[in-house]
Amino acid sequence: MLHPRRDSQAAVDAVLGWATSRGIEVLGLTEELNRLDCAAVGVTAAELGSRSDLLVSLGGDGTMLRAMRLADGQKAPVLGVNLGKLGFLAEVDVPDLPAALSAIDEHAFTIEPRLAVDAQLGDRTITAFNDVAVVRVPGDGGAIVAVRVAGHEFVSYAADAVIVATPTGSTAYSFSAGGPITSPAVEALLVTPAAPHSAYSRGVVLSVHDTVTLEMLPTSGRLAVEVDGEVAGYVGPGDCIELRARPSAAQVVRLGMTTFYQRARRKLRLTDSAEIPPASSGGS
Questions:
Q1: Candidates 7, 13, 37, 61; catalytic one
Q2: Tens digits of residue pLDDT in 58-69
Q3: Are residue 136 and residue 95 in the same domain, yes or no?
Q4: What predicted TM-score, i.e. pTM, was given to this entire model?
């Protein structure tokens, strides 16, 4: 799977060169392969997900999320190859790609399960691996939202947005809104208000075994429903969105090169308190 704009030719050539020497067939989305001159076999998105033994994402975290959606419910794990800025999900850079593929071929890797959240929006079920958010539409009023857990009232927010994130999405929109960094090994849903203007402004961490419902209260404005950053529809007062967590929906390949905590520290540029001397902080 290719990033829509970045130059992926060198990475594609590395995959094809490695695969050709081993007699392995390489598949790709037909519409993406049309941008390149390569010998991969063009298939549909459904075929790519069902026929692959390994999905290789060439791009950044956004491309990885697309690959994870294709891998949802399929056997193939996803290997992330970084083509630009350092991301959380990518495991290797292009120069390391042939060695990484050889390690996977020799079963010298581990699998990191990733949780998804399914949102019932009208008669549609939409899956997110990062987050589902209800976001104010400028000029239409704020997000006045009640959060119900397992059918019971829990907390209500008045905010610019209310975000329900997976651990994967904890370092994206939720983090920007003040939510916690959460290891992907944790199975939980994070509910975080963005720019809250209500008395209660703290986020909450919920069990994956409970159904979460977002109810747009009568004083709420018209809200956009964003699923992994893309607008999937709109809701208004009286509407509800039911959310269900689905553990191990996709699998990410890890080769032991870095840990989640190392990636988080670098990507988010986490720094220690100025009151802590560098020698005693344990940082790098």
A1: 61
A2: 998 899 999 999
A3: no
A4: 0.89
